[in-house]
Amino acid sequence: MKQRPTLFLAALVIPALAACSQPAPPAENAPEVSGEPLAARAVMIGTEGPSLPACSSISRVKTGGTDVYWAPGETRAVKAKLAGGANVSLCEAADDDAWFGVVFAAPGTDPDMCGVGKSVTNAREYQGPCRWGWIKGGTVQLGG
Question: How many Å apart are CA 140 and CA 37, to the nearest integer?
Fold first, then answer.
């Protein structure tokens, strides 16, 4: 009679151990990545000083929309897509205006909650609550 609990436990443990020893999925299932690792660079706000808004202007994305990236110069990983006509707050420029660091509200969210229309005492990384990223220069109508 004492063998039944042992057999029962063995019946449970052996399949569990067998599942742990399964080989890893083949390499072709992994996404192909080339080049340097992707980098993220947060958008800085308050770069114009404490007497001005944290982000300099509200602009409108041009017809056709634009992709939002994790860092200026990065074109491999799209963080978000913005439709034409979407409002963004321009907070920072990089690479001679080739890239703009922007803050934008999620669809259906009040853009005033982003908090970039108010001044900040010191320049700092934007940490929310809205979304942020980098767009290519020429994809927005400045002062929209």
Answer: 28
Measured CA to CA, the distance from residue 8 to residue 1 in angstroms comes to 12
Task: Answer whether residue 66 shows pLDDT above 90.
Answer: yes
- The number of helix segments (H) and strand segments (E) in the chain equals 1, 9
Cβ contacts of residue 10 below 8 Å, gap of 6+? none
Per-residue pLDDT of 90-135, as tens digits, reads: 999 998 889 999 999 988 888 788 989 999 999 999 998 999 999 9
What strands, in cross-sheet order, belong to the sheet with 87-94? 78-82, 66-69, 131-136, 99-104, 87-94, 57-61, 140-141
N-term to C-term CA, the chain: 82
